[in-house]
C-alpha cells in the first residue's frame, strides 16, 4: 500500500543544525531514530513528521542554505525487517534551485506494518 502525505510546516534550528518537517491533524504515537533521522509515527503507523539532526552535514550544504528551502520530498519503504528512507531537498542559492539527496536505512525495530509512504512539502 502506498500513501502520500502533504506536510504543512518546516522549522530549521540553525544553532543545533536540525530540520523538522511536520503536518497537522494526526495523533502522535511513537518515534523511531534511524541514525539521526527521527520519524514520528501517528496512531495509524504512518510517518507524520521527520526531524533530521546534523541536517547540513547529511545533505552536504551550508547551514544558511537550509533557511532557503524550496521543497522537501521523502519516500519511505517499510519492510518486515528494515526501513529505507530516500530524501530530497531543493534550496534556493543565488537565484538558482539546487537539489540534494540523501538515503538512510535502519531496522524496523518497532514492527511497523509493511508500507510505502511519500511525504512532500513545498515552501
Largest sheet: 5 strands, mixed
Spatial ordering of strands, largest sheet: 1-10-7-8-9
- One letter per element, helices H and strands E, the order comes to EEEEEEHEEEE
Number of strands: 10
Number of helices: 1
Would you tell me the overall average pLDDT? 90
Organism: Methanosarcina spelaei
Keywords: Glycosyltransferase, Transferase
Protein name: Hypoxanthine phosphoribosyltransferase
GO molecular function: glycosyltransferase activity
Please give a handful of descriptors for the protein shown.
five-stranded antiparallel β-sheet; mainly beta; 123 residues; glycosyltransferase; DUF2283; glycosyltransferase activity; 4% helix; 10 strands; single chain; five-stranded mixed β-sheet; globular; 62% strand; transferase; Hypoxanthine phosphoribosyltransferase
Describe the structure.
- Keywords: Glycosyltransferase, Transferase.
- This protein has one domain.
- The protein has a 5-stranded mixed β-sheet, with no helix packed on it. Strands 2-3-6-5-4 form a 5-stranded antiparallel β-sheet.
- The model has no long low-confidence stretch (mean pLDDT 90).
- It is built from 1 helix and 10 strands; from the N terminus they run ββββββαββββ.
- The longest helix has 5 residues, at 55-59.
- By secondary structure, it is mainly beta.
Lay out the secondary structure.
Blueprint: E1 2-6, E2 9-13, E3 18-22, E4 28-33, E5 37-42, E6 47-53, H1 55-59, E7 69-78, E8 82-93, E9 96-107, E10 115-122
Parallel strand pairs: 1-10
Antiparallel strand pairs: 2-3, 3-6, 4-5, 5-6, 7-8, 7-10, 8-9
Amino acid at each position: 500500500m502506498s500513501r502520500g502525505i502533504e506536510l504543512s510546516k518546516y522549522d530549521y534550528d540553525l544553532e543545533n543544525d536540525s530540520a523538522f518537517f511536520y503536518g497537522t491533524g494526526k495523533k502522535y504515537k511513537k518515534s523511531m531514530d534511524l541514525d539521526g533521522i527521527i520519524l514520528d509515527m501517528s496512531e495509524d503507523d504512518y510517518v507524520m513528521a521527520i526531524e533530521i539532526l546534523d541536517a547540513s552535514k547529511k545533505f552536504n550544504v551550508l547551514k544558511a542554505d537550509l533557511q532557503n528551502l524550496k521543497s522537501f520530498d521523502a519516500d519511505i519503504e517499510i519492510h518486515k525487517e528494515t526501513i529505507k528512507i530516500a530524501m530530497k531537498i531543493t534550496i534556493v542559492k543565488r537565484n538558482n534551485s539546487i537539489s540534494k539527496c540523501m538515503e538512510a536505512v535502519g531496522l524496523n525495530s518497532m514492527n511497523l506494518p509493511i508500507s510505502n509512504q511519500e511525504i512532500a512539502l513545498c515552501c
